Amino acid sequence: MSSDEARTTRGLMLMVVAPSGVGKTSLTRRLVADHSDLHLSISATTRAPRPGEHDGRDYHFVDRAEFDRRIEADDFLEWAEVYGNRYGSPKAPIMDALARGQSTLFDIDYQGAMKIHAQAPADCVLVYILPPSLAEMSRRLHARSQDSEEVIRQRIARAKEEVSLWKTFDYVVMNDDFDRAYAELAHIYHAERLKASRNLWIEPFVEELLDEPIEG
Q1: What digits encode the pLDDT tens for the residues 184-207?
Q2: Is 90 flagged in the annotation as binding?
Q3: 89-105: pLDDT as tens digits
């Protein structure tokens, strides 16, 4: 068995869910930057770009007609309408990456994560990022000045609903200290990559071990 064959693995889909204003984007972008085998899923969306966002890097920005065409073509692992805009995760590039041993990180909402998990539970790892408090979450949302007061109230109400569902996740991380939260998220990813079920090299390697003649 060659060295490459000996380490053949299947990638995983890392679902990171958190309310807006909790620091999920900073955590996930750093995790992707630090791991060459982990890539961010770039969703398609019908919403307009925010200041500093770029098509193809942050999202694939499309109009509703194009989004509907992709739904009809079954091009999404999941899609949902959130606050009047549609978001969808492309299917083909993600499944191809898993087969090549590459993992995909989803910066995704609860509804989307559950839809993908229902389709491929063995490939999914669910992580929820908790805010240190709802007051701090509200402060961060106001500080970034991207949402109206009504939208901020909706986001906080939705956060309360999601937090109550914490038992549906594989892991829960609190982002009260960024470095600690990042270290915990990275440990989760490393451990999941090492799971025997994802390391396809183990079975043939063990078979060779058992067939290996013992001298002396």
Answers
A1: 999 999 999 999 999 999 999 999
A2: no
A3: 999 889 999 999 999 99
Cβ–Cβ < 8 Å for 46, 62? yes
Domain locations in the chain as residue ranges: 3-41+103-211
Please say if the pLDDT value at position 80 is more than 60.
yes
- Consult the annotation and say whether 151 binds a ligand: no
Give me the CATH code for the 3-41+103-211 domain, please.
Answer: 3.40.50.300
> Going by C-beta distance under 8 Å and a sequence separation of 6 or more, which residues neighbour residue 168?
114, 126
22 is in an annotated binding site: yes
Is residue 24 a known part of a binding site?
A: yes
Q: Angle at the Cα of 116 (from 23 to 14), degrees rounded to 5?
A: 45
Cβ count within 10 A of residue 33: 10
Q: Say if residue 173 carries a ligand binding annotation.
A: no
Angle between helices 149-163 and 134-144 (to 10 degrees): 150
Answer whether 179's CB lies under 8 Å from 136's CB.
no
